[in-house]
C-alpha cells in the first residue's frame, strides 16, 4: 500500500514527506507492495491468504499486530516466498527504492537475508547481485523523476541458522558492489550474538561495519552481547536499553535518572539506536512501559541525549513510512521540525558511508530543513 506524500503533514502545514530523510532500519522483505506480492505469487504458483491488494495489506497489518516478535515474523513466510527468483528480487528492490525516494529519503540502507532466497536455485552471490540490479534501476528511476537517492545493502545472517561466517564472507565479498554493512536478525531471545562470534571476528579483521538486532525481543544481556561479541556500531532497535535506566520522580516537575553500565556506555559512546516506534508497539518490544505510542521510551532516550534515529522496520507490516513515523512521534511527544532535523542528522552520522559522504548528507539535510 503506497501513500502519497501529501498525506503526512504537521499541524502547522509542513509537508514531512518532502523533507530529506535517512532510513537506517528497513527490511527488504518487509517493504513489498501488496499488488506486487499478488503478481509475483501468481507467477510462481504461491497461494496467498488474500488476493485483492487492499485485503492483503490489511491481512499483513492485522497479523503483524500480535504483541509478539515470533508471531510478527511469520508474515515474512509470504513475502519471502515471492522473492526466490532473480526477477522477483530485482523487482522488489527496484520498487523499494522508488517508494523510499517518493517519501523523501535521500539515503537508505536496505537490510535482508540472502540465505532466505535460495529455494529456486539462486546462489548467495546471485541473490545479492539481483538485489543490487534492482537497487540500481530504482536509483535511475528516482533520478529520472527528478530526485536523488543513494542506497546501500546490509547483508543479514539469521540468528537461528549456522551460516554466520559464510554470510559475513558474502558481505565482504560484495563490499565494493553495493554492500555497506552486516546485520544479524530473526528470533532474538535464545540466539545471542555470541553464537556468531566467528563471523564477527572475521568482519572485525576486515574492518567491515556491523549493526545487530538487539534490545527488541530480549533485554540488556542481548545488547551487551551485540556490543561485546558483535562489536556493533549501531543497535537494531535497541529500545530495551531503557531497562537499564531508572527514573525516580520526586514531583511532577523533577526527577532523578540513573543509568546502568550498559546504558551509560551506549550513551557515552554515542552508539546509534535504530528505533522503530510502530513496529516496537506491534511486537511488544515496549510492553514493559505501555501499549500506546506515548508510552514508548523514545522521548526518554532522546531527552537523555542518546543517539536516537527514527525507522520503519517493515513498511508493509506496519502500514507505515518514514514520514508517517515522524508525524506519529510528533503527535505523541510534541516534536517539531527542529526535532525531526536532529533525528535525521543523527541518522546521517550513523550511516555506514565514508566520512565525506556522511558530511554531504548532513549538508543536504540542513539545506532541506532550512527550506521547509
Task: Write up this protein.
Its EC number is 3.5.4.4. This is adenosine deaminase. One of its GO terms (cellular component) is cytosol. It is an enzyme of class 3 (hydrolase). Its cofactor is Zn(2+). By secondary structure, the chain is of the alpha/beta class. The chain has one domain: TIM Barrel. It is built from 15 helices and ten strands. It has helices spanning 34-44, 53-64, 69-73, 76-81, 86-102, 124-144, 164-173, 197-205, 220-228, 261-268, 277-283, 298-303, 322-333, 337-350, 355-370, and strands at residues 21-27, 105-112, 150-158, 179-185, 211-214, 234-237, 245-249, 255-259, 273-275, 308-310. It has a four-stranded parallel beta sheet, sandwiched between helices. The protein has a four-stranded parallel beta sheet with strand order 5-6-9-10. Strands 7-8 form a two-stranded antiparallel ribbon. Strand 2, helix 6 (124-144) and strand 3 (150-158) form a beta-alpha-beta unit. Helix 5 runs parallel beside helix 6 (124-144) and helix 7 packs parallel to helix 8 (197-205). The radius of gyration is 19 Å and the shape is globular. The two termini are 27 Å apart. The model is unreliable at 1-6 (pLDDT under 50).
